[in-house]
Amino acid sequence: MTDSMSDVHADFRASVRRLAADRIAPYAADVDEKERFPDEAWQAVVDADLAGLAHPEHLGGSGADLLSQVIAVEEIAAACMTTSHVLLVNWAGTCTILSEGSAELQKLVVPEVAAGRAGAGWCLTEPTAGSDVAGLTTTATETGGGWLLTGRKRFISNAPWGDWYAVLAKTGESRHGVFIVHRDDPGLSFGPHERKMGLRGSPTADVILDGCFVPDLRVVGDPAEGYRYIMAELNGSRALIAAQALGVAQGAFDAALAYTSERAQFGQSISRFQMIRGMVADMAVRLASARALLYEAVALIEAGHPEARARASMAKLLCSDNAMSVTTDAVQLFGGYGFTRDYPVERMMRDAKITQIYEGTNQIQRLLVAKAAYAVAGVA
């Protein structure tokens, strides 16, 4: 980046950080405790025009670059990972519409989502198909003027809060399409709210499709190329999950620094103890290394570099593994207090775990990274 662009992104980070501290963090514990939607935080996001960061200006968004999106997710996640998740899933639910959808479909869906007046979700995972995307069983059958969708999608974020859902379904042998379903479409229903370890305020439920009719207008691009469409979007989405992991780790680190500076034992601040300082140093290194790799991945993605896919997998892997380590150490630094809900680090540790699982488990990320390494070495 140029110096001027660095200043722009630094100023943007500062503004989102202030917003997160003033209007998001105060509600994070209550959202988690009551497993409720983060209404106050979401309104703050909408008021700050952050809901449309990933959407182009002609569709009501701000057309921000990927780095700005990453910064926003990172800073919001440091205060409340649930709120960051609602935001980035809205972007994920509209990404294939932006890249492959018709102008008419874009105008139908995107402006309301960009303004924060509508929510979106992405329906990929199924009861028997998680990492094995090719094994999904939801089908789309062509009929007069549209398609009939039948199947069940599992662990769908923003369901049933969202209005629009991008559904990947089989349209034939080795053929898949992306179909945009509205919450009011006949044949669409939702399962019960999932009771989760973390991200407890993020609405999550099954999306059930029982002969749900989707008109041709709401088919994204070619109904045989949906699998390729979603694969093309994974670089950006994995960078955003990495940012989310980095953000919650940074939030836990900042809380641990403040606590250990104030907590006194044996007549002095525990921040003076060498064992404490050793843990803090390890946490700081994990944060810095994860951030450096993530920002390198973002630069490669934005440049369309052939190594972007492997770097995005590396960033998602490192940021999420480091987030789990940093948040766990933060709980340890709080001692017994870290095990209580009176302090934020136990929530942050619970929230961090999912970043190692969704958007491709870290075991899958390791396979992708190894595959890329062998390809560079010229080994099949």
Automatic annotation (TrEMBL):
Domain Acyl-CoA oxidase/dehydrogenase middle as annotated: residue spans: 123-212
Alphabetized Pfam families for the sequence: Acyl-CoA_dh_1, Acyl-CoA_dh_M, Acyl-CoA_dh_N
Name of the featured protein: Acyl-CoA dehydrogenase
Residue ranges of coiled coil: none
Domain of life: Bacteria
Source species of the chain: Amycolatopsis pretoriensis
One GO MF term attached to the UniProt entry: acyl-CoA dehydrogenase activity
Cofactor(s) listed in the protein's UniProt record: FAD
Family: Belongs to the acyl-CoA dehydrogenase family.
This protein's UniProt keywords: FAD, Flavoprotein, Oxidoreductase
Domain Acyl-CoA dehydrogenase/oxidase C-terminal: 225-373
Keyword Oxidoreductase: yes
PROSITE patterns named among the record's database cross-references: ACYL_COA_DH_1, ACYL_COA_DH_2
Acyl-CoA dehydrogenase/oxidase N-terminal domain: residues covered: 7-116
